[in-house]
Amino acid sequence: MTATKPVSERLPHTHWLERLAPHFVLIAYCIVALFPIVLIVMNSFKSRDGIFSAPFQPPTAETFSLIGYETVLGRANFPNYFLNSLIVTGVSLLLILFFGSMAAFALSQYHFRGDVIVGLFLALGIMVPIRLGTIGILRMIVSLNLANTLVALILVYIAQGLPLTVFILTQFYRQIPRELTDAAHMDGASEYRIYMLLTPLVRPAIGAIGIFTMIPIWNDLWFPLILAPSDQTATITLGTQQFLGQFVSDWNAVLAALTLAMVPILLMYILFSRQMVKSVTAGAVK
Amino acid sequence: MQTPNVHKSRSFPWHILVFLAPAVIVYTVFMIIPLIDSLRLSLYAITPDHQEVFNGLNNYVVLLTDPRWSAAFQNAFWNNVKFFIVHMVVQNSIGLLLASLLVAGGRARSVYRTLIFAPTVLSVVIIGFIWNLILSPLWGVGEGILKAVGLGALFAPWLGLASSALTTLSLISVWQFIGIPMLLFYVALLGIPEELMEAARVDGAGGWTAFWRIKFPLILPTVGIVAILTFVGNFNAFDLIYTVKGAQAGPQFATDIMGTFFYRTFFGSQLQLGNPAMGATVAGMMLFIILAGVAVYLFFWQRRIATYDL
Predict the structure, then answer these.
(1) What domains are defined for chain B?
(2) Can you give the pLDDT at residue A285?
């Protein structure tokens, strides 16, 4: 291959291979990424014999069985765990977005003494993981009589989610044209009214932050394990972990529990994935 | 500098306080104060009758030099370094490869992206158990796959062997989180204007040269961000080891990392009683390690690399 040849003459030769190679690698990697998940889901619908004798086969008429699901739904408190997770994640998320957008609005719209310091203070939590304060958190939660309550988890998750939310939303509020705020001021709108007017404009950012804040809260094992380990307050992640530990040898139940824990989050992910990636892309390319 | 609310300047700006108060209060009370309290506790010793006595930096000296503590601490620290290196080398380079292929992936790329990112959204508990089952000699799925490609002899109960457990767990974590560097690199690569690559092609640069000479230098800021995110995440990891290996991080602490060491020190285990002051000291060391990493990133990496405005 010589560099002196015009581009148009060189390209067609390598084209079909060059075009197919990325697809080949990407498809191969997709299989690597999905195979374990598919294997678990598939085998959760099989009898114990089917799981062990032909793990790679989809359930057939002979091997189909729902015994695992019967065990899980019959013995464990799964609906309750699920409800706990929904409450904790939902309430935390709402309050993170509400408190976070108010703080970001103030940091972006007003100049006041110490505004930079407040911004940096809130940003500290982006890099310092909240887990390192666990001992202090546990002592405080115990002294407030909140151990083994969902409230304890919600308060900690709000603190955990705020730094990044405030940081990103501040950038988005800053991009809103000044004329809009000035016009609202002219019309005599109060500061609270202006917050209500501007917040819908940063909705795409709120959506993306919402998804990225929600996933770690839903999936967290650390704080449920330490702050609210009782069976009554267990989240789906902790509940699954404890159930799996107890039923290690009951393969049907283990596979069914794993599937039940995966399906809701995967469904939500598929539903929102396009929006999620789009918002990341939009945020970076701008 | 604009002062949008001059017309109200004389009265105290209550609205600013109202906007900031909820976030600042919850964040301070449930994150900053506990962190400070935890650091304070690391400077105290707890007597048998539960009194806290100021102890200076003694706990840190004990953790680093007393053989009863230092061996366990160093084991956890170096295991964690290894955990991090596997992520940096395997996760971030494959992530970069996948991202650069995605950019060339045409119309199907959103499908690939969605599928490859899927394991990332699942809980570490689920992922840990899935791989525990797949690699279990009892089920034989892992062995079956290796046999199918003619490598059956290579199979061993990797998660159970002291020599391979940590690497195996690191690779499981890599498998789960590869979507994050992939997505970040992908976004960075998308930001490179097509004309630039066109120009390189006209100048006769092949795909490989063009990538390393033009694209890679342009995405160096993202490389730094991915590195620091990986560092903080890895030195703070806990869930995977706890799920697969329990708080003992076996076999013989071969998979113990800072997070599990912290948990065991604070809460105790079958072998030792919980020790809040030493637990706080371990957390203090973790904070120091993470801040050191962040400092390296901010003062060396971010200052030294050139950023190009595209």
Answers:
(1) 58-304 (1.10.3720.10)
(2) 42
Closest C-alpha to B285, from B241, B235, B246, B244? B235
What is the bridge-based pairing of β-strands B52-54 and B44-46? Answer: antiparallel
Q: What is the per-residue pLDDT across A220-257, written as a single tens digit (0 to 9) for each? A: 999 999 999 999 999 999 999 999 988 888 999 999 99
| Residue of A116, A118, A132, A214 to mutate, interface with B, max B Cβ within 10 Å | A132
Question: Please, are residues A108 and A170 in contact by the beta-carbon 8 Å criterion?
Answer: yes
Contact between residue A202 and residue A239 where contact means Cβ atoms under 8 Å apart: no
Model confidence, pTM: 0.89
Identify how many contiguous H helices and E strands chain B contains and give both numbers: 18, 2
The Cα B95–Cα B113 span in angstroms is 11
Q: What is the pLDDT of residues A183-210, one digit of tens each?
A: 998 998 899 999 999 999 988 888 888 8
Percent residues over pLDDT 90 in chain A: 59
Domain identity same for A28 and A132:
no
Q: Please tell me which residue of chain A has the smallest CA distance to B34.
A: A136
Q: Which of A45, A85, A37, A56 lies closest to A216, judged by CA?
A: A85
Numbers of helices and strands, H then E, in chain A: 13, 0
Sequence-distant (≥ 6) Cβ neighbours of residue B283 within 8 angstroms = A132, A133, A134, A135, B38, B39, B42, B262, B266
Of residues A212 and B55, more confidence is placed in B55
Which structural domain range is residue A133 located in? Answer: 76-246
| Percent of the residues in chain B that have a pLDDT greater than 90, as a whole number | 63
Confirm whether A280 is domain-assigned: no
Q: Are residues A81 and A62 in the same domain?
A: no
Q: Which two tokens stand for residue A265?
A: 């989050």
CA distance B56 to B75: 25
User: Residues of A with CB below 8 A from B4's CB?
Assistant: 109-110, 178, 181-182, 185
**Residue A18 pLDDT:** 72
For residue B52, list its beta bridge partners: B46
Amino acid at B2: Q
What is the pLDDT at residue A274? 72
Closest CA to B277 of B50, B80, B64, B67: B50
Chain B stretch 221-260, residues whose beta carbon is closer than 8 A to a beta carbon of chain A: 228, 232, 236, 238-239, 242-243, 259
3-state SS, residue B305: coil
Answer yes or no: is A13 within a domain.
yes
Using the predicted structure, report yes or no on whether residue B258 has a pLDDT greater than 90.
Answer: yes
Tell me the per-residue pLDDT of B32-65, one tens digit each, with 9 for 90 and over. Answer: 999 999 999 999 998 888 888 999 999 999 999 9
Other beta carbons within 10 angstroms of residue B17's beta carbon come to 12
Report the run of H or E that residue A39 belongs to, with start and end: helix A7-43
Interchain contact B301–A (C-beta under 8 A): no
ipTM score over 0.90, yes or no: no
Say how far apart CA A131 and CA B37 lie, in whole Å: 13
Q: How many domains does chain A have?
A: 2
For residues B5 and A110, the answer to whether their CB atoms sit within 8 Å is yes
pLDDT digit string, tens, across residues A132-141: 999 999 999 9
Does the pLDDT at position A5 exceed 90? no
Distance CA A168, CA A237 (A): 28
